[in-house]
């Protein structure tokens, strides 16, 4: 039932998803426009260009065949792992940690790229693993190495937020691949028991973030300032918000990082609970679409990768929103598609591009 | 179940995947719901709270100090008002290039280095938008110089302010007090941000302090929208201040100033009361400080000068000076005698001394008064008469009468503190010294010496009560309820007799004959007193002459006292004058009362007298104080003897010396030491 007027490549695109993503991105640009005090500069315009470019890139990526992605999984993982090592050696220190690699013409953040890459490589690994092996130790240790290496490399940068996301992304795929449930229950119990040890091995600024998360009023003008001001911005918005360009917390600079990590608070102040519901619902549509892609996918690699990528996007959103609403410590994870900055958009667009490619493979095979 | 890993087929694996993927999809929904719920909690349930907090962030309140209420006298003449002045503050948040701006300000305002350091320190711990004062009370030229350069001086805020001004200066110092910047302790108490607003002053002393709630008013406020960095985006609205209430005093400003001037170079106080209402028409205590200089923040040097002065200019002598009242208590003692049934006609023969056991108590008149009845005993102030009859009725009857007339009382006045002295009786002595009352104690008390101590206000009240026959209460605020006072529990005939005898003191053959009012139709009645401040040894008495007079150092001279009222018929005004170490009640205190009361009837005449006197004293209060300050500033040699008088044993608060007199006498008497027999108080009027 193909419309003869529309070329096949366009007709096969998941338009519902693209419109949802456009809606989130467009809304994000409106918020950035307001955060700059009603100006396209310095954020909205450049973010719009970036968003468009990466969306275009995602659509191009969706044309890549699943077989090619599968084949490239290990090489890409390897390259990014090398880049992470390079960051450790030649890296550029910014904001208290070493995350960037300056190639002269572009600065890249390999840890960002690792988020989709870890999902792909894990999916590929369990794709290769014979189904009979899944309950053996050989199903666990290579996965542990594959996840552990980038996790530790990012952790020492130090970037707890990204490291955690890499860990979660990898573990989610092992879970989907069918490792015994008791492993996860055991690991969870072990994690809880080890919490105190972990806490004391954190960097000072990380430990402070945790302490402040537990009690933001402990130091409302100092370390707890971010969370306190973010909650004030969100809470003062009410149901319908203060209105476009009328946010005081963001415009009078009480809200720190109002255009990056705390962009949701900037949005909520002006658009209220309704705006917040819109963002949450839109992202749920996106990740649910991705879960449905994974359920429909016919290859094991496609299934695992699609569900893993869905969870990667979900973790992004869930961690960021928990943080700005005071449910999680401040970990420095942006709200994808909305926060100003290129890395998160790029990562999420890569995820979406890969998902669309898997989706296309499934549709083509039908 | 067998050991080792279960063999999983591809089909089973797909099933596991589907199940787990759906679990994760469900978890995504669950998390989405949690986040939406959390958001609803913040923005819907807790909306009010966060709205307030956001408003709190956005809006800063800058307080505008209220204009302080005026103090006016009974006729509405201003006694404490506000004068517009110019000031310069710095708003720390708007300050850029601190060093350059401060240097420029220092140059424009000619600020001394210590001030510059103070400003730098203040700026260091200043809270953003709250102004830091740079200079107050600057003249218009300097104010203008800063104002025109305001654009080059970001953060500098020239402003108009108010300073408290007391037109009468030192004359009202103790009565009204002064204002000053709130201390850190004041602020600690209730954290009222108004207290640390530049330009705001609170009452520190006198009526300014006690009437603070009335005078303060309510601050205005400017609401401004500010950024997190304290930059003011725009002013939202301004609520103007509510000035404090005007407080009308019972005091007559003219009389107060006159009395203060009339005290002259002496140290003392004058209290005048209205005999109809109890209104305090004046409460002058001199020397004093100029409340104007305190309200600007007094300099160290000026304060040191005030502290070093042995005339205690920092002490309000009308309320806190305690003196042996001397012979001014004799009318009260006479009233007690009359009540006890002693008739005015009963008399004694005064030989100049009175024997009690193996001791002699002397009359102030060597050789004695001869035949003395009550009337003569009052106007000649014969001590022996009172020694004799007081022994018959006992101290308790006398003390009751004195208390009835206001001695020993603390009055309900809006003043910072009153020292109410002592009216001794048997119970008091038992309580205080755990010893029984002795007959010589009665002898001492009956002539206002020994344990007896009163403040000048009490003496004025006693005078007013004798004059009016009513239980008058002193009143300082015009709005206090007017109480005419119940008639005293004293036979009006007795009072009439005492008033007539007191008239004889001035207008008859009495001790204050030189102090008749220079008025055709008004006469003053009164009673002089001269209170000794130290013991007189037998050796000194043997040498003869005056023991507390010109020949001895100032602080050992006798206090001069006078109580009086006018007119004699139907009295209208009552007065008490106490001049510390003034030597003679009749020579020094009574003339002051005369001139002060004259002022009430004929101000021009009284002022003419005073102007002549002030020429002799080297100018009016202001010129004399200015000269003193200049001399103090110029002293390069060590300060004169005044420094050692910082803790004078026998000056204003004469309690130690006066108390010492009696116990010393008692000790000598109980030892039966004849040589010390003369070691008793002496009354010289």
Any overview of this molecule?
The complex is a heterodimer of chains A (366) and B (685). Chain A has 14 helices and 3 strands. Chain A has 366 residues and is mostly helical. Chain A has a 3-stranded antiparallel β-sheet, covered by helices on one side. Chain B is of the alpha+beta class and 685 residues long. In chain B, the strands form 6 sheets. In chain B, strands 2, 3, 4, 5 and 10 form a 5-stranded mixed β-sheet that branches. The longest helix of chain B has 36 residues, at 10-45. Residues 639-685 of chain B have low confidence and may be disordered. At the A-B interface, helix 7, helix 10, helix 12 and helix 13 of A face helix 1 and helix 2 of B.
| CATH fold-type name of the largest domain in chain B | Beta-lactamase
Q: Extract low-pLDDT stretches of chain B.
A: 639-685
Shape type of chain A: globular
Find the biggest chain interface. A-B, 53 and 46 residues
Enzyme class (chain A): transferase
Main location (chain A): membrane
GO cellular component, one term (chain A): plasma membrane
Transmembrane segments (chain A): 12-36, 42-62, 74-93, 113-130, 137-156, 162-179, 184-202, 271-291, 303-325, 337-358
Features:
heterodimer; A: 366 residues; mainly alpha; 3-stranded antiparallel sheet; 14 helices; 69% helix; B: 685 residues; alpha+beta; Penicillin-binding protein 2a (Domain 2); Beta-lactamase; 5-stranded mixed sheet; 5-stranded antiparallel sheet; 19 strands; 41% helix; elongated; disordered C terminus
Describe the secondary structure blueprint for this structure.
The complex is a heterodimer of chains A (366) and B (685).
Chain A (H helix, E strand, L loop, with lengths): L7 H4 L3 H21 L8 H18 L4 H25 L1 E3 L2 E6 L4 E2 L1 H19 L12 H15 L4 H18 L3 H21 L2 H11 L10 H13 L10 H4 L11 H34 L3 H25 L17 H24 L1
Antiparallel strand pairs in A: 1-2, 2-3
Helix pairs in contact in A: 2-3, 2-12, 3-14, 4-5, 4-6, 5-6, 5-7, 5-13, 5-14, 6-7, 7-13, 10-12, 12-13, 12-14, 13-14
Chain B lengths: L9 H36 L1 H12 E6 L6 E2 L5 E13 L7 H12 L3 H12 L7 E7 L1 H9 L7 E10 L7 H4 L2 E2 L3 H7 L11 E2 L2 H5 L1 H5 L3 E7 L5 E8 L7 E2 L4 H11 L4 E7 L5 E7 L4 H5 L4 H9 L8 H4 L9 H10 L8 E3 L2 E4 L2 E4 L7 E3 L1 H6 L3 H11 L1 H10 L21 H8 L5 H8 L9 H13 L23 H16 L17 E7 L6 H6 L15 E8 L6 E7 L5 H17 L1 H15 L3 H14 L20 H16 L15
Parallel strand pairs in B: 2-10
Antiparallel strand pairs in B: 1-8, 2-3, 3-4, 3-5, 6-7, 8-9, 11-12, 11-19, 13-16, 14-15, 17-18, 18-19
Helix pairs in contact in B: 10-23, 14-16, 14-17, 14-21, 16-19, 23-24
